[in-house]
């Protein structure tokens, strides 16, 4: 258990800056997920915490100690890799005991520690096998076992589940969460999968282009995304966006760019005349109505043509064409009679709108 | 349509098999003849059809003549060859594998120039450097010694290059990272992780080094003048030249004639075949290294 602190951490690859002055404090025992698209710098940031990547500028503190220039083995960390990275020439036991052997533990001690870890991960009967004889899920268990054997202060996971199939991924996700509860250790977890981030994290760090976009609990990020990137990245299916424009008379009236007849008021936001805005709404907030008259005053009414309906049984996704390039996605629970080509009316609740200025910063997140 | 495909298929098949057949015959027949001819007498070699098989007794008699001649000198040469080869292979492995590893996984100033130099050294024919090596060993007083020739053949840039290619393409990066997190320093990384994974390239370098050492003629010819220190290729030449076995001259009383010379050639060739058969599994995987992601 240890706190991890990044202070103005920067990484350059030659002249290319891939991490831009990241400041972040991860408290002891916290499960933090770095999430972002590929190339966002999340893995690089993790590798800088691990010491596998050098830090170009700034400091890395683990448990209050400056570890910026420490070797990976001196940092009290353990890491689980996407490729499992088991030693192919050692059996499972030796894979797990390798670190203990290097740190000169006695044979008996090492044996006890390995067996303890193997019990926690339920891989005791695999100890004699070679990595080549294991399935993907078993390999990842061994890799996690190898990490917990040494009782590290901080666990680092670099996309550990990306190589597993969907069912196994869910199972291992629960396993890692269980491990976090049982070991009460600080864990940093990197993934590009926002579902993993949402389900596992105490706090999520959203990264894009080497900068932190937002840090917060999963629900904070979902409810109050600070900018367009976070709004679009967190949540599945993703948030619907509409281009909008503040009216020229300086009032709070706003109209959609795609359909200037759809006007509504956005009170209590600092709007200037002729400002370009983006308004966003989550698919589950959209309701479908049979006629405009039915849409309540609290909602913005829009007409659309149904482009497609995906029926997943308990849930349906409607894809609506409102004349803009992007289709609007609506989540409809239970049964629906909507069908391709149908003209419909849908309502967007004004209270649930996310409004972003022309720079992409949220005006509603506060 | 299917007929047409079948037709073109058999044409390409024919081309492939005729090429293979040509190769087999062109390169295989002399080798086959060598093994057959070793069992025949001098007279039979001239009078009987090409592929006549001789008798076991004849082969034994020839073998006895060959080995006992001049105080069993051919056995001494064989022993020398083994010493030179073991020494040369060990030295080239001890230098080429770590050198290739260092060039592949570490960054240091001058790395690129060393790689280029290695390539230049690799394509430089040994004839070109034989004089400086000779002078160097002369200065060190190592001419005409086992150590001299072993030191000279331990220089094996091709092995460094092979090892470099293997380590830069086939070493899984995640495994190396993982070992660093587990606490390996650079040396332990090489000993515990890289070396055990490098078996194929070790076998490959050892094989090529053995091949070069076992059949080393020119360097041995320049560096060794004492017949006692000769290796097999050098000895074979000396044997044939001194006995006149391959010259069609009037019979002398030296028991080394054509069948003996043929068996001597088998002694030189056979170990290479045996070593290849033993090493081929490793050698083949070594040659494929990097072709597929590990």
In short:
The complex is a heterodimer of chains A (366) and B (294). With 366 residues, chain A is of the alpha+beta class.
Key features of this structure:
heterodimer, A: 366 residues, alpha+beta, Rossmann fold, OB fold (Dihydrolipoamide Acetyltransferase, E2P), 2 domains, six-stranded mixed beta sheet, five-stranded antiparallel beta sheet, elongated, B: 294 residues, mainly alpha, MetI-like fold, globular, disordered C terminus
Question: Can you put this structure into words, describing what you see?
Answer:
With 366 residues, chain A is of the alpha+beta class. Chain A folds into 2 domains: 4-233, P-loop containing nucleotide triphosphate hydrolases (Rossmann fold, 3-Layer(aba) Sandwich), CATH 3.40.50.300; 240-356, Beta Barrel (OB fold (Dihydrolipoamide Acetyltransferase, E2P)), CATH 2.40.50.140. Chain A contains 8 helices and 20 strands. Chain A has helices spanning 42-50, 92-102, 107-121, 136-149, 166-183, 194-200, 218-223, 228-233; strands spanning 4-13, 16-26, 31-35, 57-62, 65-66, 77-80, 154-158, 186-191, 203-208, 211-216, 240-246, 253-256, 263-265, 276-281, 287-289, 299-311, 315-321, 328-333, 343-349, 354-356. The longest helix of chain A has 18 residues, at 166-183. Chain A is elongated, with a radius of gyration of 25 Å. The model of chain A has no long low-confidence stretch (mean pLDDT 91). With 294 residues, chain B is mainly α. Chain B has a single domain, classed as MetI-like fold (Orthogonal Bundle), CATH 1.10.3720. Chain B contains 13 helices and no strands. The relative contact order of chain B is 0.13. The interface between A and B is medium-sized, with 23 and 18 residues.
The number of distinct β-strands of chain B equals 0
CATH arch. level architecture of chain B: Orthogonal Bundle
CATH topology of chain B: MetI-like fold
Structural class of chain B: mainly alpha
The radius of gyration computed from the alpha-carbon positions of chain A, rounded to a whole number of angstroms, is 25 Å
CATH class of chain B: Mainly Alpha
Mind telling me the CATH superfamily name of the largest domain in chain A? P-loop containing nucleotide triphosphate hydrolases
Q: How much strand content do the residues of chain A show?
A: 25-35%
What is the CATH topology descriptor of the largest domain in chain A? Rossmann fold
Q: Give the number of DSSP strands of chain A.
A: 20
**Number of helical elements of chain A:** 8
Q: Mean pLDDT of chain A, nearest integer?
A: 91
Helix content of chain B: over 70%
What does the overall shape of chain A look like?
elongated
